[in-house]
Design goal:
The protein is α/β, with parallel strands linked by helices and 144 residues long. It is built from 5 helices and 7 strands, in the order ααβαβαββαβββ. The protein is globular.
Length: 144
């Protein structure tokens, strides 16, 4: 009992920690399985997630200002940043710590091995892009 109590007092998964977890709002198709796996990845890495199942996720990408060139199968927002595609939770946490002047992050397409796109041991190389407010992008993190 003491270990459980101690764990919650020291930042375990108690109510105070849940309230402090960043909220990610996700727009995805109701039939997209990989999007659901990405949502689970975020939850496993300390995010609260609110999912909006929509017929046209691309409309929300456009509404939020993410260029279609960086598009994927789902779009999200966390603390004012737009997150496009299968961005690893690690890079979202980094973004929220660094707070760059940017629109957000993107992993264009659906690279195998990215969170939600796991297929056994196969891992395709991909880049997480930092998308600037003018729509330009630069590599934020490489995955090889």
């Amino acid at each position: 009992m003491a270990a459980t109590l101690g764990g919650s007092l020291l930042g375990g998964a108690g109510p105070a920690r849940a309230a402090a977890a960043p909220l990610v709002e996700v727009w995805k198709s109701p039939t997209c399985g990989c999007c659901g796996q990405w949502v689970a990845h975020l939850e496993q890495h300390g995010f609260r997630v609110r999912v909006h199942e929509v017929q046209g996720p691309a409309e929300h990408r456009e509404r939020l200002g993410m260029p279609s060139a960086w598009g994927s199968c789902h779009t999200a927002v966390v603390q004012g940043y737009v997150i496009e595609g299968h961005v690893p939770a690690r890079e979202i946490h980094r973004l929220l710590q660094e707070k760059p002047a940017a629109l957000g992050l993107a992993v264009p397409g659906m690279p195998v091995g990215s969170p939600g796109m796991e297929m056994g041991d196969r891992r395709d190389p991909y880049d997480v892009l930092l998308v600037l407010r003018d729509g330009q992008a630069r590599v934020y993190q490489r995955y090889r």
